[in-house]
Amino acid sequence: ATPTSIMVGTGRGAEMGVLFRKGEALQLLKDAAVVAVDKTGTLTEGKPALTDLELAEGFERGAVLAAVAAVEERSEHPIARAIVEAAAAGGLELPAITGFESVTGFGVRAEADGVAVEIGADRYMSKLGLDVTAFADTAARLGDEGKSPLYAAIGGKLAAIVAVADPVKEETPAAIAALHELGLKVAMITGDNKRTADAIARQLGIDEVVAEVLPEGKVEAVKALKGEYGKLAFVGDGINDAPALAEADVGIAIGTGTDIAIEAADVVLMSGSLKGVPNAIALSQATIRNIK
Ligand code: ADP
Ligand code: MG
Question: Over the stretch 224-253, which tens digit does the pLDDT of each residue have?
């Protein structure tokens, strides 16, 4: 492409809220065969709400929710806010917390009034040597409903299964349909539960799902998808998306996301809307076509 056509294309992108931080990205995007997308905060609002809480025998709802919320008050994860809000809505008094720890990719732990409390994914419970099969049917049902199941352990015993649901952003279905119309495949990469991710992917018509990915695994997932499809654009918003944004042929950050993601990206969607992705690809195709 000529410098002039790149300048024109970059200007047109800016008008539609798509910031090309590198002119190269405008040229590369037209060759993308697959768009890999982070789930939480990118396809979804990133604002989950607590939807379900089922207790193990011998545990009481208010006490479990208060203990778990007290621990989650120390966490920055969107899941944490959902749980803290549910406890606040119930007017629960929270116990005192000591020894808070975030176990990246697994969950969080602390002592609440001196009693150990752990909350996180099923793999966290496995790590702790706790058997979650008593909740297998519930977990499967929650996952099929697109909700994310989490487990709480109190005093070294499995206490409850909790679910949070994160609504899909309003513009997500149209953005995915537009990518398909442009002839691209769409893949989802997430740390969330496989069953939950599959349910959301089915609902959105997403072609491939890579789920239960640990934070450092996103780069590996991007490499594998590149090998499978060819040129890849990755779209993400979080701190843990930065390495994947750098690894992609074109990294696209949601403008409302974290600064670290934005800095790692070649393209920034200023409006925060995922529709900027097909718009940017269509613009790249048009820009390059025009100068031929
Ligand atoms: P993601 O951005 O996909 O949620 P993370 O690596 O942040 O990826 O988290 C992976 C998984 O670990 C989550 O899906 C959840 O099951 C569990 N987890 C992480 N942080 C928390 C937390 N504060 N409370 C409960 N579970 C958590
Ligand atoms: Mg995210």
Answer: 999 999 999 999 998 889 999 999 999 999
Instruction: Sort 4 into a burial class: Cβ within 10 Å, 0-12 / 13-18 / 19+.
Output: exposed
Measured CA to CA, the distance from residue 238 to residue 17 in angstroms comes to 20
Give me ligand 1 centre to Cα 241, in Å: 14
Mutation pick for ligand 1 pocket among 53, 79, 235 (CB with most ligand atoms within 8 Å):
79
Cα 112 to averaged position of ligand 2 atoms, centre (Å): 29
Please check whether residue 119 is in contact with residue 151, taking contact to mean a CB–CB distance below 8 angstroms.
yes
Report the C-alpha gap between 75 and 164 in whole angstroms. Answer: 15
In the chain, where do the E strands start and end? 18-20, 34-38, 49-55, 97-103, 107-112, 115-120, 148-154, 157-165, 185-189, 208-210, 232-236, 250-254, 267-269
Average pLDDT over residues 110-124: 97
Q: Where, residue-wise, is CATH 3.40.1110.10 in the chain?
A: 49-165
Residue from 77, 122, 258 whose mutation best tests the ligand 1 pocket (most atoms within 8 A of CB): 77
Extended beta strands in 166-229, E state: 185-189, 208-210
Q: How far is the CA of 180 from the centre of ligand 2 (A)?
A: 22
Q: Give the active site residues.
A: 38
What would the CATH number be for the domain defined by 3-45+168-290?
3.40.50.1000
150 Cβ below 6 A of ligand 1: yes
**CATH node for 49-165:** 3.40.1110.10
Mean pLDDT computed over 184-192: 96
CB 113 within 8 A of CB 94: no
